C-alpha cells in the first residue's frame, strides 16, 4: 500500500494513496497520523491495507491526490539515522583527499544521528542563509521501522522494515570539515531533509525489493537535466536491514524510526569513478561526488554547490516508468 | 510550575505536580501529553499555570505523586541535542591523552545529535549487554524549547527556554573511540538517556536561574555515596541559551526540542583537576572524569565503569534542601 500525510497541523493527516498516485482516501478514522499508525502497526496496517484495496477498486470515494499537498510522510519523527551503505561514495571522498578507506568501513557501517524534529515537505524550498555553506543534495532511499528490540540481527531487522521512502538529505558541505574536526559528528551541516510525497510498503516494489535493498535507479535531476541515475541495488555494501541492526546494537528503536541508506552511488562500468549521465554514465546523487571526481581528474572541483534559484528533484520509477514514491522537487531559496 | 508525565502509553499522561513534589493533578484535559502542551505552549501554559496555583492552594483534588510513576517528562522527543558547556570536562579528556583543547572550543560549542526516540524513565534500570562497553553516567542539566526560528541569537534563544530538567546521559565509553575515529559522531555509544521525574519552568529556580544557567550543585551519588557536587553555575563556558542558538544556526527547532549542557564539571579550588567529594572537592558527574584525573596523576585509571548492580542517582536541591526536579535513580542491569 501507499500512504501519505496531507498538510494539516504539525503531523499531517493520514491518507491512503492509489498505486498510480492520482487519488487518495482519508484514513484518519483508522489512525489520525502516520506516527499513530506506526505506534500500533500490527493492528492498524490490515485496516489501511483494506482501504488501499478499496481505493484501487474505486469502491470508496476518493479525492484527487496532488503531491504538492503532501508533507514528508512523517512530517517530524522521533528518529532519523542515516547510514552510508554505498561505500563508493566514501571511497571517492577519501580518494579526493588522498586518504584510504579503513577496512572496517566494509563491515561496520558509518551512521550519524540526524535531526528529526522537522522535515521539509517534498515540494518545499530549501532555505539557505549563506551560499558559502555549500548547499548540496543527497539522493537516498530510507525505511521506516516498527518497534525494533535491542540487539536484533540483520535477518530479524528485515522484518521490522514497514515502509520505504526516498530522501533528499540536504547537506551544507562548507560546514562539514569544521564539524568533523570537532569529532561530535554532523549538526549544523545537516539542516532539514525532505522525504518523498508517498511512503510505500516493500511489497509495492515486487522483485525490485530484494535483500532489503531497492534494485532500481534513483533518478536525481538538477536544474531540469538528468544528474544521477545510480542504481540503489548496485554496490550496496550494506542493506537497509544491516543499517537497522547497526542502529539497534545498543538500544531499542521506537516505531517510526527512519533509517537512511546514505547517498546512492555507483562505480563506473570500468570499476573507476562513474561518468556523468550526459556521457552515458550513471551520474551522481549529490554534487560533492562530481566535485570529487573533478578533483581526482583535474586537481580541483569545477561544479559549484547549489545557490538560490537552483532546483533538484529525486524520484524512482518502476519498470513500466511509473513513479513509485512521487517526486521530491525543491528549489533553493535565500533565507 | 512543575510538570510530569505519568506512565501511560508511549507518551505518558500530563500532570501538574506540587512544588514539594508530593501531590499531582491530572492536566490531560488541558493537553493530553507534554508534547501536545509544548506544540501549543502560548495558549496552554496559562491554563497549566492556573492549575499549578490551584494545586499549591489545595483547591483541586490531588493524588499522591510518586516519582517512580513518572516517565521522562518527554518519554520520547523529536529532538535531543547535547552540548558541552563545561569545557573543564573536555580539558580533562584531552589532558589525559596528552592533547590540547583547540581555541575554537571556547567560542564554538561542541554538540551532538542524540537519539530521542525513547528515553528511560527516571527510575528505570539501565540495560547493559556487555560490560566491556564501559557504561558511564553523565549528570547534566537540560532545557526544553518551544519553536525556535533559524538563526536566533543567544539573547533571543533565552526566551525560547520553557522548561528545565536534569539528565543522566548514559554513555558507553568503550564504544566511543571507535565511533569518534569513524568521524560521524556518537551513535551506538549513546544509548537511551533518562530525565528527571519533573520538568520545571525557569521561574521555579528563583535567583538560581541566571544567565540561562542553573547556579546550584548537581548532586550525583554513586552506589549510595556522594560522587559529584559540581555547581552547574560555575565554569559554564556556554549557557543553555548559547547552546539553543548554536543548534538553531542552520535550521529551526521544533517545539519540544531538548538541549543539554553536557557533563557538569568544576575545576578544583586551585584551578587544577577537581578533588573527590570525600576529599572535600566538588567531585565528578561521570566516571570518565575521575578516570582521567587518575590517568593524569598515575598514568592509568583505577576506577572501573559501571556494571550490573551499580546504582547512580542525579538530583538538585534548592537552598532549603528541597528536591527541585525529583531524583533520577537507576540501577545497571544485565540485558
Strand order of the largest sheet of chain A: 6-5-18-9-10-12
Largest sheet of chain A: 6 strands, mixed
**Largest interface, counted by CB within 8 Å of the partner chain's CB:** A-B, 53 and 53 residues
> Measured on Cα atoms, how large is the radius of gyration of chain A?
19 Å
Domain Fumarylacetoacetase N-terminal (chains A, B): 1-76
Protein name (chains A, B): Fumarylacetoacetate (FAA) hydrolase family protein
Domain Fumarylacetoacetase-like C-terminal (chains A, B): 80-332
Keywords (chains A, B): Hydrolase
3D structure, described in words:
Two copies of one chain form a homodimer. Chain A has helices spanning 34-39, 41-56, 87-96, 154-158, 176-182, 240-247, 287-298, and strands at 2-6, 13-17, 23-26, 63-64, 80-83, 111-114, 126-128, 135-136, 139-145, 161-168, 171-172, 194-195, 199-200, 209-210, 213-214, 219-222, 225-228, 258-260, 311-315, 328-334. With 335 residues, chain A is of the alpha+beta class. The first copy, chain A, has two domains: 2-65, no CATH class; 75-334, Fumarylacetoacetase-like, C-terminal domain (Fumarylacetoacetate hydrolase, domain 2, Alpha-Beta Complex). In chain A, helix 3 packs across helix 7. The longest helix of chain A has 16 residues, at 41-56. The two termini of chain A are 37 Å apart. At the A-B interface, strand 6 and helix 5 of A face strand 6 and helix 5 of B. Chains A, B: One of its GO terms (molecular function) is hydrolase activity.
Amino acid at each position: 500500500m501507499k500512504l501519505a500525510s496531507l498538510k494539516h497541523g504539525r503531523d499531517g493527516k493520514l491518507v491512503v494513496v492509489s498505486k498510480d498516485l492520482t487519488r487518495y482516501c482519508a484514513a484518519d478514522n483508522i489512525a489520525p497520523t502516520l506516527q499513530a499508525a506506526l505506534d500500533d502497526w500490527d493492528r492498524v496496517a490490515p485496516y489501511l491495507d483494506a482501504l488501499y484495496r478499496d481505493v484501487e477498486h474505486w469502491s470508496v470515494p476518493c479525492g484527487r491526490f496532488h503531491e504538492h499537498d503532501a508533507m514528508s510522510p512523517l512530517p517530524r519523527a522521533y528518529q532519523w539515522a542515516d547510514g552510508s551503505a554505498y561505500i563508493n561514495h566514501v571511497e571517492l571522498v577519501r580518494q579526493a583527499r588522498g586518504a584510504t578507506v579503513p577496512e572496517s568501513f566494509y563491515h561496520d557501517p558509518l551512521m550519524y544521528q540526524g535531526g528529526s524534529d522537522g522535515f521539509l515537505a517534498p515540494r518545499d524550498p530549501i532555505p539557505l542563509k549563506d551560499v558559502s555553506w555549500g548547499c548540496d543534495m543527497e539522493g537516498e532511499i530510507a525505511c521506516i521501522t516498527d518497534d525494533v528490540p535491542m540487539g536484533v540481527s540483520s535477518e530479524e531487522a528485515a522484518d521490522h522494515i514497514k515502509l520505504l521512502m526516498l530522501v533528499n538529505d540536504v547537506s551544507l558541505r562548507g560546514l562539514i570539515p569544521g564539524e568533523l574536526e570537532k569529532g561530535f559528528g554532523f549538526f549544523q551541516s545537516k539542516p532539514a531533509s525532505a522525504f518523498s510525497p508517498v511512503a510505500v510498503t516493500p511489497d509495492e516494489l515486487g522483485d525490485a525489493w530484494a535483500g532489503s535493498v531497492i534494485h532500481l535507479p534513483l533518478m536525481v535531476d538538477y536544474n531540469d537535466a538528468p544528474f544521477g541515475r545510480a542504481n540503489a541495488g548496485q554496490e550496496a555494501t550494506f542493506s537497509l536491514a544491516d543499517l537497522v541492526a547497526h542502529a539497534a546494537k545498543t538500544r531499542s528503536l521506537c516505531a517510526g524510526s527512519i533509517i537512511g541508506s546514505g547517498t546512492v552511488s555507483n562505480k563506473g562500468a570500468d570499476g573507476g569513478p562513474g561518468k556523468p549521465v550526459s556521457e552515458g554514465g550513471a551520474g551522481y546523487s549529490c554534487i560533492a561526488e562530481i566535485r570529487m571526481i573533478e578533483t581526482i581528474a583535474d586537481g580541483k572541483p569545477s561544479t559549484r554547490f547549489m545557490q538560490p534559484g537552483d532546483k533538484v528533484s529525486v524520484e524512482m520509477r518502476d519498470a513500466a516508468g511509473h513513479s513509485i514514491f512521487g517526486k521530491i522537487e525543491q528549489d533553493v531559496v535565500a533565507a
